[in-house]
Queue: 2 jobs
Job 1
Amino acid sequence: MKICWDNLERLRYSKNTNRWYLGNSILEYMDSCEGCNESFLAYIRKDVDKRFCSVGCKNKTIPVDVSGKNNPMYGKRHTEDSKRKISANRKGKCTGNDNPSKRKEVRKKISESLKIYNSDKNWYGENNYNWKGGISFEPYCINWVKLFKDEIKERDNFECQNPYCESNNPDDLTAHHIDYNKKNCDTNNLITLCRCCNSKANAKRKYHKELYIKILNEKHTCK
């Protein structure tokens, strides 16, 4: 937890124990965060990584892509004993659909609050972290017509090919350029996605490119 005025107003220091407290929680003073090199206060708990002052600093320092072969459990299976320990550790915690943040009314409130927050920010054009120099305005290839796009969708059975699709409208389909080159309309470079997954593919491009190449290779034996 970064030390700032908002935190200091709620903190108290005990000379008897030589410790900091925030409510009933005990905090430990750390000299330096591995991410930003600033001092910070860490909760004294086993599940807290005391090397970093925040999740943001941790994600900047440690790669967050643990999918596929990057995952330490890739190709392995949990033992029955391991499963029991994980289950026991999760008991009493709000996981899955039991998490209040998963409820529709809560998600709607979060969505509305983010709309208000984002409306006050200028996330457009060069100020957006996904800005790629205006390539979205580049022209498509001459084959990029409705009939051609419909052929791609038909090839993919008119289904979003993202196995992790969570869209509420998965039938709103479009053809996605796997290598992000709009002029490359080779059928092996095109895959059917819903508009939600197509938008998500603009982030983590290397991951999505490898994912969709693998899917096409497996489903259509494309080289």
Note: The beta strands are 11-14, 19-22, 25-30, 40-43, 173-177, 190-194.
Job 2
Amino acid sequence: MKKRIVLISILLLLWGSMIFAKSTIIIANGEWPPFSGEKLPYYGICSRMVTDIFEVENVKVEYKFVPWIRAIELTKLGKYYDAVIEFSKNKERLEKFYFSEKPILRSKMVLFHKKD
């Protein structure tokens, strides 16, 4: 957990003073329990980590929960949201967004079925 907080801290510091100059930032987020969710305590595990990091810099975080595709598209425009969290890197996103060098979260998706 501490390693993830350090990685998030580095990412947020690299974003520069433009975001930190604001007293509140708006982050687009989606539903992905237990990592994020509008009805979860602290809006989920990942949201809590990001909130804690910004709190160190005296920046408040406001989350707006929207469908994932909308979160990406509206954040690209830069008019509605300052950032979006919990996305994987791909070529298209790298052209529009800054990413941390290491992920704040790793998940492994598997398929399982009943043995009989």
Note: The radius of gyration is 15 Å.
